[in-house]
Each structure stands twice: as structure tokens, then as C-alpha cells.
Design brief:
DNA polymerase, domain 1; TIM Barrel; 2 domains; alpha/beta; ten-stranded mixed beta sheet; two-stranded parallel sheet
Length: 346
């Protein structure tokens, strides 16, 4: 038996060609396309303005794999973590982070991760596979439904900061964003989307060449090569000099916002000397914002969060040197939904 083709991997014109072969009217193809993307139909049976014979014919010809919510956890602060089951049984997690002004979806791009960052729970998991672009789209669509259901508001922002390294699943991430921002999809502004990378310099340059319109965040976490390589093995092949060059190339090509992510670890990267090194890197790149992030403990790592005084001193030092920095308080810690904690625990 021939394997059915995933209908969402076809363009509108390709679906129109199939419908022409089937002897169906051209407008039917547009109806199906609308069901697939604008209405996020989970199956052909849901496409109620199509005849039953046509729906049966589509079901025979095509597959329509969609992800489903396998488990949800609700934090005391309103954060919702979802574990999604993919069509092949693999699991990934996504998070809805609501605030007074924003409804942010944090989405995954890979099942597991290959980069082994020492402070991140996903980094201790094996990378099983990349997510297809339609699976990433489904994550966003399902989290958007949660935002509407629980908070009465649509998503305002998307961050690719969940499981996996987005730039090692480059084509699917870009194609998912194309669908998310399309008027025929979720019609979100690319300026509301941020892709976070541990630092794949070659692909940061590719983003510039491809003239993407979304924002970029670099997971920095240490501002000298020795320390960064200690906690992020990718730094051995993508050191800070190379990353600075690639970020400047990206900015020159796109003028898009760049931010740094910097988790504070007690007695590792929270001293005045560390702050000075961060300032030095900050001044080499047109960085819009430095997000200073609270460390969230995970089972496999021995890092600790600095004291409140040490954190405040670090922030004050950055402010004194005119660094646009913001302390990002963790959300969803009580359900392992905070930064670095995603590991399919529910």
C-alpha cells in the first residue's frame, strides 16, 4: 500500500491541481486550504462544507497528521504547560505565558536536543528528530486556543525557546513562521516572533541572506569563551568572535531586533568581572535588549541561583554602564515550565 502524502505539505496550487484531476471545482481546493490553515481542522471529517464523498476521497488519498495535547499543567501564576503527542508517539512541550499585556507561546522545534547545554533539562535528552513545519504550526495553534479559552485573548507573541535548537531545524522553522504569519494561517506579525539560538553562526548568517523579518535572540549565558564552552559545548565550534561577526552580518542584512539571553549562575557568571565582559560583547553588537534570567533548577545540574542582593548588584552595574537590561522573572517554575526546564515531565 502506498504511503499517503501529508496534504499540508502541498501548496494551494498543488491542491488545485489534484482537485482538477479529481474533476472537482477549483473553489473546493481553496475551501480545503482554508480548513487546513485558517481553521486548523484536525481531520477531513471536520470539513463540513465539503460533501461526504469528497471527504472520503481525500481521506483515502492523503494523510492529515495533527498533534494533540497529551497532558496539561497549570501554574499558580497562570502559566500553562502542555505536553504534545506527535503522530509517531514522540512528545514535545510548549508553554503559554500570560501577562497583563501579552499572551506568549513558547514552542519547541525538535524532539530533544543535540547541543547538551549543561544548565538545560532538554540538553540531557537525546535528539530524536526535527519537528515538521506543520507540527510547529499546530503547537502555536493549540496554544492560541488555550489563550482564548483561559484568558479570552489571542496570542500576541511567539518565542522559539522550547525544546531543541531552531537553527538546526532551519527549513521547518522558517516554513512554520511563513504559515504562522500568512494571512491564510494565523496572520501574526513576524515582528512578534523571536527565534532563540545557542549560537549556530553559519545559520545566523543564512537568516540574514534569507532576509527574514522576525527577531533573533542569542543564548549567551557567559561572555568569555572559556566559561561559555564549559556550559555550552557549541561554543567550541562557534566562539564569541565568530558569533559577534555573524550577528552583525544578520543585523546589517535585516535591521531586525537582536537580544541576548543571560542566565545568572551563582559564583560562575554573576561577578563584576562577568558583567564587564558582558558589557564588552554588548557594545560589539547592535543589541536591543539583554534579558537577565533567573536560573531554574533541574535534576541533572549543580548550578544555583545567585542571592537577590547579587542579582540586584549585577543589574545595577549594567544600568550604570547604560546597558539596556531587564531581569526576567521565571514563570511556571512550580510545573517545570520555566526557562531550561522542559523535559516532558508531567
Amino acid at each position: 500500500m502506498l504511503q499517503q502524502q501529508n496534504i499540508r505539505h502541498l501548496s494551494l496550487s498543488q491542491i488545485q491541481d489534484v482537485f482538477a484531476e479529481m474533476g472537482e471545482k477549483p473553489f473546493r481546493a481553496k475551501q480545503v486550504y482554508e480548513w487546513l490553515w485558517a481553521k486548523q481542522a484536525p481531520d477531513f471529517a471536520s470539513m463540513t462544507n465539503l460533501s461526504k464523498p469528497l471527504r472520503a476521497s481525500l481521506e483515502e488519498r492523503f494523510s492529515l497528521p495533527s498533534i494533540r495535547v497529551d497532558a496539561t499543567q497549570h501554574s499558580a501564576d497562570g502559566t500553562i504547560k502542555s505536553r504534545f503527542r506527535l503522530h509517531d508517539g514522540h512528545l514535545v512541550e510548549g508553554v503559554l505565558i500570560p501577562t497583563a499585556t501579552r499572551q506568549t507561546a513558547c514552542v519547541s522545534s525538535q524532539v530533544g536536543c543535540s547541543l547538551s547545554c549543561k544548565f538545560c533539562a532538554t540538553g540531557y535528552m537525546e535528539r530524536k528528530r526535527n519537528l515538521d513545519f506543520d507540527e510547529i504550526f499546530d503547537e502555536v495553534a493549540l496554544i492560541n486556543q488555550q489563550a482564548l479559552e483561559h484568558n479570552g485573548k489571542k496570542l500576541t507573541n511567539i518565542v522559539f525557546m522550547g525544546m531543541g535548537e531552531p537553527l538546526l531545524n532551519y527549513k521547518n522553522v522558517l516554513r512554520s513562521i511563513e504559515r504562522i504569519t500568512s494571512p491564510e494561517g494565523l496572520a501574526m506579525s513576524p515582528k512578534r516572533i523571536t527565534v532563540s539560538t545557542a549560537g549556530v553562526a553559519k545559520m545566523i548568517r543564512q537568516l540574514g541572506d534569507d532576509q527574514v523579518r522576525f527577531n533573533l535572540a542569542l543564548s549567551l549565558h557567559a561572555a568569555n569563551d572559556e566559561k561559555r564552552s564549559e556550559i555550552m559545548p557549541i561554543n567550541d565550534t562557534n566562539n564569541l568572535k565568530v558569533l559577534v561577526e555573524s550577528l552583525n552580518y544578520f543585523y546589517k542584512a535585516t535591521q531586525n531586533e537582536i537580544s541576548f539571553e543571560y542566565i545568572l549562575f551563582r559564583d560562575f557568571n554573576d561577578s563584576v568581572k562577568d558583567a564587564d565582559e558582558l558589557i564588552k560583547i554588548y557594545r560589539q553588537v547592535p543589541v536591543d535588549l539583554v534579558n537577565i534570567i533567573e536560573y531554574n533548577p533541574i535534576d541533572n545540574a549543580l548550578f544555583a541561583k545567585p542571592s537577590e542582593d547579587a542579582t540586584e548588584a549585577f543589574m545595577a552595574y549594567l544600568a550604570k554602564h547604560k546597558v539596556n537590561a531587564r531581569l526576567r522573572r521565571s514563570r511556571g517554575k512550580d510545573i517545570d515550565a520555566a526557562c531550561g526546564q522542559l523535559a516532558n515531565k508531567a
